[in-house]
Design a protein that fits this description.
This protein has 255 residues and is of the alpha/beta class. The chain has one domain: NAD(P)-binding Rossmann-like Domain (Rossmann fold), CATH 3.40.50.720. Helices cover 45% and strands 15% of the residues. A 7-stranded parallel sheet has the order 3-2-1-4-5-6-7, sandwiched between helices. Helix 1 crosses helix 9 and helix 3 runs parallel beside helix 5.
Length: 255
């Protein structure tokens, strides 16, 4: 088992990529703390893990609230005695996110609060626990949209994910000497509820994007979480400050 006895906190861990990560990490021997704002789905994921013989705890968490993130880290340590991995997966992509000249302030506040400040708050309380025990792994989820422009604007989302990359680089330098590794994954379009709600149900929008992907399909959650598994494990002991793109080749496609 690649994560035997590691305590892994996964935000947005109830569904989509987070749910897939929670189940996979548990199968690989981790003690999983499922953090999510949707209690019913979080409890369901924990029940599934336990039914398979795994070990998991649900902690209701709104990552945009600092107090929730402090409570999350404390509950992980209270229940399992340590905190080895923080997988910052929680994120939002509101349908009304548009151009910098169109977005109201409320969109910026909402997106940055979850996608960027949420990571800041979780790291604020998880990283000191990792330092106490001699090391750990922080895995942040950004996006391919942070690496290139798009003619269909989603400016708050893209800016928030660019901030995630910059923050990860800073953390890698600050906390690497304390054996806390920080890395970031930039997924391409992944078939999760976040994408399905607006893209996969719209043939015109779907067909606009799919031809850009050389592998000819949208990603599946497992395409991302297997890389996260590697970053959570000791196999990646010398990987720090890396920006890893998992996108089927979309960012390599000129036209």
């Amino acid at each position: 088992m690649r994560l035997k006895d590691k305590v892994c906190v996964i935000t947005g861990g109830a569904s989509g990529m987070g749910g897939a990560a929670s189940r996979l990490f548990a199968r690989e021997g981790a003690k999983v703390v499922v953090a999510d704002v949707v209690e019913s789905k979080g409890q369901e994921t924990v029940s599934e893990i336990k039914a398979e013989g795994g070990n998991a705890l649900f902690v209701k968490t709104d990552v945009s609230r600092e107090a929730d993130c402090k409570h999350l880290a404390a509950e992980a340590v209270r229940e399992f005695g340590r905190l080895d991995v923080l997988y910052n997966n929680a994120g939002i992509f509101p349908a009304d996110d548009a151009s910098v000249i169109d977005n109201p302030e409320s969109v910026w506040d909402k997106v940055l609060a979850v996608n960027l400040k949420g990571i800041v708050f979780c790291c604020k309380y998880a990283v000191p626990e990792m330092i106490k025990q001699g090391g750990g792994s922080v895995i942040n989820i950004a996006s391919f949209t942070a690496l290139l422009g798009c003619t269909v604007p989603q400016d708050a989302y893209a800016a928030s994910k660019g901030g995630v990359i910059a923050l990860t680089k800073q953390m890698a330098v600050q906390f690497g000497p304390k054996k806390v590794r920080s890395n970031v994954i930039c997924p391409g379009p992944i078939e999760t509820p976040l994408l399905t709600q607006w893209l996969l149900t719209n043939p015109a929008e779907r067909n606009k994007r799919l031809p850009r992907i050389p592998l000819g399909r949208f990603g599946q959650p497992e395409d991302v979480v297997y890389l996260a598994l590697h970053l959570a494990s000791d196999e990646s002991a010398w990987t720090n400050g890396a920006v890893m793109v998992v996108d089927g080749g979309i960012t390599s496609n000129y036209f």
